[in-house]
Amino acid sequence: MNWKQITLTILGLILVLFGINDPMLLIFPMWIFTYLLKNKLILLLNRFPLPVAFIGAGVFFGLATEVFAILNNISVPLEQRILISPDPVLDLIYGFFYYLLLIFTWYILLRKIKYSKKEVFLITGLLGVFTEEGGQVFLRILSSPIEGFLYAIIIMFVYGLFPMLAYLLCEERFENKQKNLFLRYGFAIVVLFLQWAIYGIFLLPILKAI
């Protein structure tokens, strides 16, 4: 281990300790330890076809994030829980289909257009800011700029980390082409927003009806 790895390991362990009382903080050690174990995880995922590796990793990281959110809300009254469903089991089921659809959308995008890991994080994070809590996260920035901005940063990490980590482990296997900035961002924003709308308008009501 070099000094950088040692520093990140210590930081990750400290954040795990803080995460005992605030489970959403566990997304940060998840990021750190995925980075530290990157080479081993890449070798593991290389055993599988790219679609299985990327989508599987994305759903795994997404569900881990959802588990942290459930733990973070477990002591909150049902009507105040910021989850897809206040019931933990149903929330995981609904979350599975949400993360599956979103990461599949990114898979299609990445097969055609080259994005950096930062762009995957930023674009998905912005999607979260504008869609989480029915747009209330974005509106909070306007009504209370400092508090709202800090909360929006947290939401960006919640939404942006899981596809970015999946891409981190599979980036070298994608054969895509560089496009101009407007096309990269514009196309991704439109497609991801459509994915969000399809989930909310069609898929989620079907799941709830079942």
Helix/strand/pairing category: mainly alpha
Mean of residue pLDDT values: 92
Question: Helical content, roughly?
Answer: over 70%
The main sheet comes to: none
Which sequence of SSEs, written as H and E, runs from N to C? HHHHHHHHH
Low-confidence stretches: none
| Assembly status | single chain
Measured between the Cα atoms of the first and last residue, the distance is: 50 Å
User: How many whole angstroms does the radius of gyration measure?
Assistant: 17 Å
Number of separate structural domains:
2
Roughly what fraction of the amino acids lie in strands?
Answer: under 5%
Protein described:
The chain has 210 residues and is mainly α. The chain has two domains: 1-36; 45-209, no CATH class. Helices cover 77% and strands 0% of the residues. The chain contains nine helices and no strands. Helix 1 packs antiparallel against helix 2 (27-36), helix 4 (50-73) packs antiparallel against helix 5 (88-112) and helix 4 runs antiparallel to helix 8. It starts with a helix and ends with a helix.
